[in-house]
Description:
Largest sheet: 5 strands, mixed
Structural class: alpha/beta
Low-confidence stretches: none
Shape: globular
Oligomer: single chain
Amino acid sequence: MTKIRAAITGVQGYVPDYVLTNDELATMVETNDEWITTRTGIKERRILKGEGKGTSSMAIEAVSGLLEKTSTDPLDIDLIICATITPDHTFPATANLIGAATGCVNAFNYDMSAACSGFIYALSAGSSFIESGHYKKIIVIGGDKMSSIIDYTDRTTCIIFGDGAGAVLMEPTTEDLGIMDYMHKSDGHGVKSLRMKAGGSRFPATHETVDRREHYVYQDGKTVYKFAVTNMAEYAVKIMERNHLSSEDVDWLVPHQANKRIVDATRERMGIGDDKVMMNIDKYGNTTSGTIPLLLWDYEGKLKKGDNLILAAFGGGFTWGSIFLKWAYDPL
């Protein structure tokens, strides 16, 4: 029996126009361009401005562009999965809003929350739906408006994050292409090191939670860095080993853009050179769920059919994992 796999057949991204540079951040908090660049590799990030604009605003732009680019009828989309930790509302799901705004009214939609690992989790879920034979066309989105939950008086976090969204179209293939394998993990003990404490059912919003600035991202940088370096690199190597891939077999590492030093550690552990690593952290910072689809969008023109890609991520929760993906089409 011929095996059905899920292949990415199109990718599109969107980033806001407003550029927040390191120099501008230095007027808001005690920092400077050299300090930020040395520790993170970030030079600037994009910020979504405008009243009433949320994650869906960016995702709608990405999905609309994706549908046009791939000549896909929105009525043919079966499912939309939106990976985000900054939904427009607690409910309805941001994916519901995206589907309605882009004309994908025959699709069912839901959100997935796994912080920076959200997109690869959602990509694996979409792959399973296609492999089961239930669906033919799925859109997977990764996007976050991180500026909505960042304290711009906290230099440990405000220098890192930006806003952006990317989307991919997934379709079935019987070729030896698409999602070949994935490995995901999580450890809830990480809650104390990377979280937004208030705003959920456990600590609903009150005057006190607002005054204590508990509706912003908190990060214990040293703990998160150590855990991320270990686990993101380990699972990138594990998926290579499980699929009998040498460093020469890997065409591209597609790493979550959290910190250039974490990416470098992962690359070194895999035994590959800088020329095989997708990077855009200097332009966009950490867009959380948006980093990996934005990388695929930026590098789409360099990808060739059959290229071996290793996607790797680490995020709050803690969550982490990797995907082995064979690219399904040549440059447009």
